[in-house]
Amino acid sequence: QKEVEQDPGPLSVPEGAIVSLNCTYSNSAFQYFMWYRQYSRKGPELLMYTYSSGNKEDGRFTAQVDKSSKYISLFIRDSQPSDSATYLCAMRRGDYKLSFGAGTTVTVRA
Amino acid sequence: DVKVTQSSRYLVKRTGEKVFLECVQDMDHENMFWYRQDPGLGLRLIYFSYDVKMKEKGDIPEGYSVSREKKERFSLILESASTNQTSMYLCASSITGFEQYFGPGTRLTVT
Questions:
Q1: Contact indicator for A46, A34 with CB cutoff of 8 Å
Q2: Which residue in B99, B72, B69 sits closest to A96, CA to CA?
């Protein structure tokens, strides 16, 4: 079993829809939870991070962590074609290492 | 802005060749990482370095080695390339460990 599970999709939504992405994990020691965005032919870039359980909002993006269920989510409101990318969840283990999900490819149709 | 550059965007090598992938960062970060990215598997850590000349194995180090002679430069070496090392290779640097800055990647094909 992988340490971090993420449905690879692909996910296709019309412009303006809410995009819902999620990951599950098995290691209860994870404390930092991140979402990275990767555009085609580019490296990933950090979108948001959350420490421990709870919600965090940044503009149209909301990250949620439920440590009791070992489940994290990312919601994108009022999605735009420019949000079309692969979204990877990641969790910090130890001092420096990250465990990544497989990534979900999202297409927002104009 | 942090910039992480990788020496090649695309590389084609033959089985058995020794391959060098170079990564340079310009933000004086202590930590540098090499990942490979494969469909359905996500990013998997090959090696990382937390200081000059210091390195630690990641999750899939077999068939790879690394070199970090200067703080800004981290090299990945495939000692004898094999077809199962065909992949996208991503380099990253970081201060905190969780906010990692990635380069654009090198797509390596081994034939």
A1: yes
A2: B99
Calpha distance B104→A36 (Å, rounded): 14
Summarised one tens digit per residue, pLDDT across range A39-88 is 999 999 999 999 888 899 999 999 999 999 999 999 999 999 999 999 99
To which H or E segment does residue A54 belong?
Answer: strand A54-58
Q: How far is CA B3 from CA A51, A110, B10, B96, in A?
A: 26, 32, 19, 16
Of A6, A44, A92, the CB nearest to B102: A44
* CA proximity to A88, closest of B11, B108, B90, B8: B90
Q: Chain A residues with CB inside 8 Å of B105's CB?
A: 41-43
- Do the Cβ atoms of A108 and A14 come closer than 8 Å? yes
Residue A81's φ and ψ, nearest 5 degrees, are -55, -30
Cα separation, A68 vs A74, in Å, equals 17
What's the pLDDT tens digit per position in B7-53? Answer: 999 999 999 999 999 999 999 999 999 999 998 888 999 999 998 98
pLDDT tens per residue across span B63-106: 999 999 999 999 999 999 999 999 999 999 998 777 899 999 99
- Interchain CB contact of A63 with B (< 8 Å): no
Q: For residue B38, give the chain A residue with the closest CA.
A: A102
Query: How far is the alpha carbon of B42 from chain A, nearest alpha carbon, in Å?
Result: 4
